[in-house]
Write a structure and sequence with these properties.
Protein name: DUF6048 family protein
Organism: Coprobacter tertius
Structural class: alpha+beta
InterPro entries: DUF6048
Strand content: over 45%
CATH architecture of the largest domain: Beta Barrel
Largest sheet: 8 strands, antiparallel, barrel
Oligomer: single chain
Strand order of the largest sheet: 1-2-3-4-5-6-7-10
CATH class of the largest domain: Mainly Beta
Mean pLDDT: 83
Order of helices and strands: HEHEEEEEEEEE
Number of domains: 2
Number of strands: 10
Keywords: Signal
Pfam family, one: DUF6048
């Protein structure tokens, strides 16, 4: 008798578990679907939201007002959700300086430099494309420079006619890291403007036997780790409309 009761109970439990699973499966699927939709809805803008092309205006203007070096650069960014911006910055840098308290002229020949990195937009779900950014860059450049008009004065030989020397054909390379913060605001349609403040750390600079580089293309003067950019940007959208999903 006990044996038949146990078998009956087991059969009833099996039927109950089967029905419970049938009831839970649609609910579980619905829950997962709702969770996925909620995850998708966290971004106002689509994944591939456009390309952003920029040109720095700060350094050319600073050069006109007496800066002893120049960096002319452009940038290209991929806009992902208006949040992440992988970026490539490319430019040409050169320098010419005769320090007042020194006896030489430094001539940095025009050389190419590159920076690659990422910008992160803190206000990525704004209704407008304005943003507040933090970013990081890795920069590198290979360049040549000369040191000319080196005055070697000697009271013993001829103080009125100093010897003029030069060190030419100096070759160097450099790598560095930059951390930055900045803002970007919309001016009209796809046209934007923005600025950044950057702090830099040199990773590696090749010094020469007779000299060390005073200017590094893309970095600036070797003794100043702070720099600024003020740029004009144009955003090229991948689609004409913003995503309908809201946060």
């Amino acid at each position: 008798m006990n044996k038949y009761i146990i078998i009956s109970v087991v059969m009833l439990l099996c039927v109950f578990v089967g029905k419970a699973q049938n009831r839970n499966t649609p609910a579980s699927t619905t829950s997962k679907t709702a969770s996925a939709e909620k995850k998708e809805a966290t971004y106002t803008y689509p994944l591939f939201n456009g390309l952003v092309v920029g040109v720095d205006l700060y350094n050319p203007v600073a050069k006109l007002f007496g800066q002893k070096y120049s960096n002319y650069e452009a940038s290209l960014e991929l806009d992902l959700h208006n949040r992440f911006f992988p970026i490539w910055e490319i430019g040409i840098g050169s320098a010419k300086s005769t320090p007042e308290d020194m006896n030489f002229t430094y001539r940095g020949k025009a050389a190419l430099y590159n920076r690659i990195g990422m910008n992160y937009n803190i206000k990525y779900n704004n209704k407008t494309l304005d943003g507040v950014y933090a970013g990081i860059r890795y920069g590198f450049s290979t360049f040549n420079y000369d040191i000319t008009d080196i005055r070697l004065e000697s009271s013993y030989w001829d103080p009125e006619n100093p010897v003029i020397g030069e060190i030419t054909g100096q070759h160097s390379r450099a790598q560095w890291i930059e951390a930055l913060v900045g803002i970007r605001v919309k001016l009209y349609k796809g046209l934007m403007m923005g600025w950044t403040v950057r702090y830099k750390w040199k990773l590696n600079v090749k010094n020469n036997f007779q000299s060390t580089p005073w200017f590094i293309p893309g970095y600036g003067t070797s003794n100043n780790p702070v720099s600024f950019t003020y740029s004009i940007y144009y955003r090229i959208p991948f689609s004409g409309k913003k995503s309908s999903k809201e946060k």
